[in-house]
Design a protein that fits this description.
Length: 658
């Protein structure tokens, strides 16, 4: 066993020394909401003798969860986790390092004797330098048998595989001992590449007693926490006269918890005395259930260690329950449900607006006024109409205000397309494109179409606007999108050449293109974007975690192939095609239920914590373009994950902060 473990340790860690010494990867924290998980992990690992702590005057142990993990601590943890601590301490190996503390000397001697580390110099180990979480995840993946050298994962990107095998759930910006303890605890039962789970190996090696291991891993630390209680501690509460739908909702939640955690929650009526942790469904005698009924739609309300689900209709209540299971229970996602997570208001469904055509949607939220603002291509492509609402759901029936109407006596005569509203240098503007000549009114393609700008006359985005001018009166283009990047203003648009081409230009001012700084950055070349014409159009940019992304629509808008592609700025010069990398596949495309999703905009939730996508879908029965919205997330690399379009009628929560 000793030689096998030594080979395993050497294989797992020989190439990670540089990572431990010099890594500066982004990491994810154990947030305040996850302190309970970190403490439980520390206590479980402490009971197994796998981690230590600091004795306190009252006899308890301080695990210093918020402290940084050092190189010395990391190597000690790994030696323990491969079951080699007995070997390390039974016969302490010599090492040449003069800066290693006595408590770590056996472990450092062991890794040095086995050729795992040579330190940072001939006599220095640098035991107190901090270890990033990316480096620590890399170590633990190698302990589980995964080999980045063999292509199991990239050494500089352990997050994707770590999430798949169960070591982590998300990515953030900080890392400490608490985070390391959670990873170590999860490693005990995480999916290994081959052979026994780590918990079984530790028992087989004699490093941990079987009964202690069984006790330590008997309760899953990942999963939903309601207040200070795990969801497995909850009691489901129904009214004595609960409806069939409410009973079905209770069964749905009970079955989900059983499937995720192997625990069957008790279900009681509201005549039973209140418990410490409850999931209250529908209208009951519990005071919390009243708070879940304060609006006409659906509500998920948290108070203390209990949560209430209530709704105005049976259909919405069922959708709310499905969302609750999906977002908080299914797949054992780690989540802490606190009062800050209370969600009130309507459970949204797509299409969000379908009473009239709503093609080419642009939605933005303004914190100063507290409104969502939206513009769409008008049904007759003859005007710019601005809509607003304090909630996203309110855009469904919002009555708009005409900002500009095309006509023979106006700057724009007809074919007014794809307006966008944006704040530039502290002032509101609306950008669009339209035909400037009546000569081609009856033509399918009007070569007189130009990009133009409307400027707000006041600080109120819902006030009056004036026609400010053409961005360039010689460029045949559509789909203007203005954005600011690193203090400079730019416009992205679709230049109509041999197929539509995404073009980028610097702005001299919010209404004038710098004609000397214009570049085409994307044309249709991949199979996914040439199924029905060579078209790249509808550009829209957004930033996340220091990265700039540009979404665009590919193929003909009237085809079933219409979809979204994406460019990522990977170089330093935004006005160089070489600085943009195109994803080689559609990032968002249609399904059997949702046809031709495209021409999108990105907006954030009122509290800024969520990214949302607004896009149009083609109704196959009347060919009307309808407004759809949905939230999207990011993967461990910081790349957007859009998923599939949400099918019509499927409920989802409104944006956070409404």
């Amino acid at each position: 066993m000793k030689s096998r473990i030594s080979r395993s340790l050497r294989r797992a860690l020989a190439s990670v020394l540089a990572v431990l010494c010099f890594a500066s990867f982004p990491a994810f924290p154990i947030s305040a909401a996850d302190d309970t998980e970190a403490l439980r992990a520390a206590e479980a690992l402490y009971s197994l003798g796998l981690v230590g702590g600091y004795a306190t005057s009252d006899g308890s142990v301080n695990f210093a969860l918020g402290d940084k993990l050092t190189r010395a601590q990391a190597f000690v943890l790994v030696v323990r986790f491969i079951g080699a601590e007995k070997d390390a301490t039974a016969s302490v190996q010599a090492h040449p390092f003069t800066d290693v503390p006595a408590w770590a000397a056996p472990h450092i001697g062991y890794v040095y004797a086995n050729g795992i580390t040579k330190g940072v110099s001939a006599t220095k180990f640098d035991p107190d330098s901090e270890v990033s979480e990316a480096a620590f995840l890399t170590i633990m993946l190698r302990v589980l048998g995964y080999d980045d050298g063999a292509g199991d994962f990239a050494w500089n990107d352990p997050y994707t595989l770590a999430k798949q095998v169960g070591l982590c759930d998300a990515k953030g910006a900080d890392f400490d001992r608490g985070g390391a303890f959670v990873i170590c605890y999860r490693a005990l039962t995480a999916k290994v590449k081959s052979g026994d789970a780590l918990c079984d190996r530790l028992v087989a090696s004699g490093a941990v007693a079987a009964d202690k291991m069984a006790q330590a891993i008997g309760t899953s630390l990942s999963g939903l926490t309601i207040g200070t209680h795990a969801v497995t501690d909850a009691t489901v509460v129904l009214s004595a006269g609960a409806s069939a739908t409410e009973k079905l909702v209770a069964e749905t939640i009970v079955e989900a918890v059983q499937a995720a955690y192997g625990v069957t929650l008790p279900t009681v009526t509201d005549k039973t005395a209140a418990a410490d942790c409850e999931i209250i469904i529908g209208k009951t005698t519990r005071a919390l259930s009243d708070k879940a009924q304060v609006k006409s739609g659906a509500a998920l309300v948290v108070e203390g260690s209990s949560v209430a689900l209530g709704a105005a209709s049976n259909m919405i209540l069922r959708n709310l329950a499905d969302s609750f299971v999906r977002d908080y229970i299914a797949g054992k996602p780690t989540a802490s449900l606190t009062e800050e997570d209370t969600k009130l208001g309507d459970l949204l469904t797509n299409p969000l607006r379908n009473s009239v055509t709503t093609g080419d949607p642009c939605i933005t939220y303004d914190n100063e006024t507290g409104y969502y603002y939206a513009v769409y291509s008008a049904p007759k492509n003859d005007r710019v109409t601005l809509f607003r609402s304090t909630t996203l759901a309110g855009l469904k029936d919002a009555v708009g205000k005409d900002i500009y109407v095309a006509g023979e006596d106006k700057e724009i005569k007809h074919k007014l397309y794809a307006p966008e509203i944006v704040k530039v240098n502290g002032k509101w503007y609306i950008y669009a494109s339209g035909a400037t000549s009546m000569d081609d009114k009856d033509s399918d393609v009007s070569k007189s179409i130009r990009l133009f700008c409307l400027e707000a006359l006041s600080d109120d985005p819902y006030g009056d606007y004036c026609f400010k001018g053409f961005l360039n009166d010689t460029v045949f283009a559509i789909d203007a999108h203005v954005f600011t990047y690193k203090g400079e203003n730019y416009v992205a648009f679709a230049r109509i050449l041999n197929g539509n081409v995404i073009t980028l230009a610097r702005l001299e001012n919010p209404w004038t293109i710098d004609t000397k700084r214009v570049v085409a950055i994307s044309s249709a070349t991949y199979d996914f974007e040439t199924k029905s014409g060579k078209i790249n159009e509808g550009p829209h940019t957004f930033e996340h975690d220091g990265k700039l992304f540009l979404l665009y629509s590919a193929n003909n808008v009237a085809s079933n192939s219409y979809c979204l592609g994406m460019l990522v700025l990977t170089g330093d010069n935004i006005l160089s095609k070489a600085s943009w990398t195109k994803v080689d596949h559609a990032v968002f495309e249609g399904t059997d239920a949702v046809v031709s999703p495209g021409h999108c905009s990105v907006f954030t939730s009122p509290d800024g914590s969520e990214y949302w996508l607004a896009y149009h879908v083609r109704n196959t029965s009347n060919r009307r373009r309808e407004l759809y919205v949905q939230r999207f997330t990011f993967d461990a690399d910081g790349m957007p994950v859009f998923g599939e379009p949400i099918a019509p009628g499927v409920g989802f929560f409104a944006p956070s902060g409404e």
